[in-house]
């Protein structure tokens, strides 16, 4: 293998990572973009969207921050892309910290001040508090870790924060069984099953992140000069 070939192979291995993460964020990002378009363009106030129409700023901040966080984060976690674009990694990392905090803090604000829709219950709301606080703590710990040059801790905490944020995409998948169950939306039974789907997505994403974090790094292959 030549020294020129190795970076190309790393970049090829990155595309499934980048594509998979962006695909995971696609559905909630489209839904969020439509919500922002409705709120900024004027939308009829209904019982379902009253909380957003009455106080649109928090949800707009949440959506814009989430889309930014999802797309930039996908590029951050691609090793080959990160190694070949170090300056971009540092600059976008600062943007990610701000976007991630915007997502978590606006999410906590909405959980506290928005009316609870009849599709959710107290368990879902309580978990949102836990996830929001955890995400803030993880981002702060990841930022302080890189300031002291602890790259392993930085990667681990930023990966945990990204995992819980990306649960919005996983929740689309875990909520599919709700469409198949003979349960009326707005009932306590529906809210209970939806809670299982929502919490399950957060737990699943965090578990996958922990597996990746704790997985031993593959040994580096020595680069051989061009032949």
TrEMBL record:
Q: What keywords are annotated for this sequence in UniProt? A: Membrane, Transmembrane, Transmembrane helix
Coiled-coil stretches: none
Q: Which residues cross the membrane?
A: 17-37, 57-75, 95-114, 126-146, 158-180, 192-213
What Pfam families does this protein's entry cite? DUF2306
Organism of derivation: Dactylosporangium matsuzakiense
Which InterPro entries does the UniProt record give? DUF2306_membrane
Q: What is this protein called?
A: Membrane protein
